[in-house]
Amino acid sequence: MAMTDGNRSYSVRKMIKENKKKQNGQQFIEWLMPKLLLLTATISVLTTIGILFTLLFETFIFFERVSIVEFLTSKEWLPWDEKTGSFGIAPLVTGTLLTTAIAMLVAIPIGLASAIYLSEYASEKARKVLKPILEVLAGIPTIVYGFFALTFVTPLLQKVIPNLGIFNALSPGIVMGIMIIPMVASLSEDAMSSVPNSIREGALGLGSTKLEVALKVVLPAATSGIVASFMLAISRAVGETMIVAVAGGSSPVLTFDVTKSIQTLTAYIVQVTTGDAGYGTTVYYSIYAVGMTLFVFTLAMNLLAQYISRRFREEY
Amino acid sequence: MEKLIDKQRVVQYMDGRLLRNNVLKFLFFLATLFGLIVLVVLLYRIFTQAIGWLNVDFLNNFPSRRPENAGIKAGLVGSLWLMVIVAPVSLILGVGTAIYLEEYAKKSRFTDFIQTNISNLAGVPSIVFGLLGLTIFVRELNLGRSILAAGLTMSLLVLPVIVVAAQEAIRAVPNQLREASYGMGATKWQTIYRIVLPAAIPGILTGSILALSRAIGETAPLVVLGIPTFLAYLPQGILDTFTVMPMQIYNWTSRPQADFQNVAAAGIVVLLVVLIFMNSIAIFIRNKFQKRY
């Protein structure tokens, strides 16, 4: 059976055929797309595997040359001399912990206070203005903070503490803390905002002041989220690189003196990779062992944060 | 008759509580302002240092040993080249992952695993991504210190951020739209491609531009890859060596001459202008195109 329409002729059979062809193409796409998308999703898993394997593999080579006992127990990090060198991770770890502790002393009180203000006191209008400004602080590149620490905060601190070195742990620690304030503030505020209003109203109805509501009712109820935000902040500070590389110095010494030049795990990796430590030298492999230490530290902190926020969450 | 309530004591007690409330409220407010004050000081400081150094020559010159001749051209062009790789790669991988997780994946152990993995990747320090890039892209795949190697490293770094942003955008598309599309006889992929993605694109773009601006400001992974800072030519293709603005700023900051500090400040101003530009595009897209369902 054929219909004619001017010069062109259609047959139903032909139309069915064409339609089927089209449907086959459609079906192929329907079959193909989920697989392609799954492939993209596995990239993130492959990234993790890649990170784990590169770190493990190269660290393994490092430990063939340097004993793991020396790495963990020696108190000296003198990687540059092949003969008399010593690879004890302790000075780098204390350097990192020192700057992290200073950063936390700045970020936790100020961040938490901001969170309380934003969540309990600020009007809707004030919150809408203040929050984005805090977020700008978080969006500034870390190299800018490094520059700020070295050229502004250190000279400023030197006026108060005359024996403060050009490179020291104090200045990058403080600046790192300032950088982390928005993170603590916004995560803690999220935790506090999720405490239901009925609880606040109950406490206010019993005659509490806003302060008492904030400190005795909301804060305890939001503890898990707040503590998790501290953990993430610590992890961020441990992994922070450019601020400490620019303003912290490069002297791996085992000290808790904040006025002295120190070196963190991250700053050591920067020092080696900007210098000319040849591929295949022990120094080259040492950056992977240091990177592994860093990775384990931050991963532990992140997992702890996830555990705390899941395990101790108050459900309403 | 003996009074049951000592009014004076109650008033005194209440005054104390109210005073504490007001004092601490003020302190909390100061803490919130602290961030703002630091931001103002930082910007003021950098702009005053940069003034006099920031001119057309600075944008047009290559790095130089003499501070007055130093310019950021190589870094500015290099940062744009970096985006040529990072933008498509991270967007395709990130949005693809998000579509898979939100539209196709069934709730299974494997899906949970991918999700947990992404949130953990977001917490890995950027310098560790540099070590990954150094081993896999620069050495194993032999890409050298090229735009491609750096771009792929940066793509992996921002991938978790883009995935999370895209997931949120896709989740915000209401189910009625999908059901209406199925009801008209559309297949799953047709629904995703023609209904869900167009509705989610403003949200995806906003999150992605913010992630890309993070990649522009990031320094640490590129230091580890060994990206040079002193380049007197522009890259011609993605396999050429290059430098970026943050690396250039890092180099100037660590030089002892005082004048280079001013050059670094000028470089920071250029970097911040680029970031502000990108962020305003993101905000513009969010305000203009984002629909609320």
Automatic annotation (TrEMBL), chain A:
Give the bilayer topology: Multi-pass membrane protein
Matching Pfam families:
BPD_transp_1
Residue ranges occupied by any ABC transmembrane type-1 domain in the UniProt entry: 93-305
Does Protein transport appear among the keywords?
Answer: no
Q: Which molecular function term from Gene Ontology is one that the record holds?
A: phosphate transmembrane transporter activity
Query: What are the subcellular locations of this protein?
Result: Cell membrane; Membrane
- Primary site of residence: membrane
Which PROSITE patterns does this one have?
ABC_TM1
Q: Where are the transmembrane segments?
A: 36-63, 87-112, 133-153, 165-185, 213-234, 283-305
**Keyword terms:** Cell membrane, Membrane, Phosphate transport, Transmembrane, Transmembrane helix, Transport
Its Gene Ontology cellular component terms are:
plasma membrane
Give an example GO biological process: phosphate ion transport
**InterPro entries this protein is in?**
MetI-like (IPR000515), MetI-like_sf (IPR035906), Phosphate_PstC (IPR011864)
Identify the CDD domains for this entry. TM_PBP2 (cd06261)
The source's superkingdom equals: Bacteria
Protein family: Belongs to the binding-protein-dependent transport system permease family. CysTW subfamily.
Function according to Swiss-Prot or TrEMBL: Part of the binding-protein-dependent transport system for phosphate; probably responsible for the translocation of the substrate across the membrane.
Protein name as it appears in the record: Phosphate transport system permease protein
Upper lineage: Bacteria, Bacillati, Bacillota, Bacilli, Bacillales
TrEMBL record, chain B:
Q: How does it sit in the membrane?
A: Multi-pass membrane protein
| Family annotation (InterPro entries) | MetI-like, MetI-like_sf, Phosphate_PstA
Question: Is Iron among the key words of this record?
Answer: no
Q: Where is the signal peptide?
A: none
Query: Which keywords does UniProt give here?
Result: Cell membrane, Membrane, Transmembrane, Transmembrane helix, Transport
| Record's GO cellular component terms | plasma membrane
* Localization annotation: Cell membrane
Question: What are the protein's GO molecular function terms?
Answer: phosphate transmembrane transporter activity
Q: Transmembrane residues, as ranges?
A: 26-47, 80-101, 121-141, 147-170, 191-212, 263-285
Start and end residues of each ABC transmembrane type-1 domain: 76-281
Indicate where this protein is primarily found.
Answer: membrane
Tell me which Gene Ontology terms the entry assigns under biological process.
phosphate ion transmembrane transport
A Pfam entry, by short name? BPD_transp_1
> Member of which family?
Belongs to the binding-protein-dependent transport system permease family. CysTW subfamily.
Q: What is this protein called?
A: Phosphate transport system permease protein PstA
The organism of origin for this protein: Anoxybacillus pushchinoensis
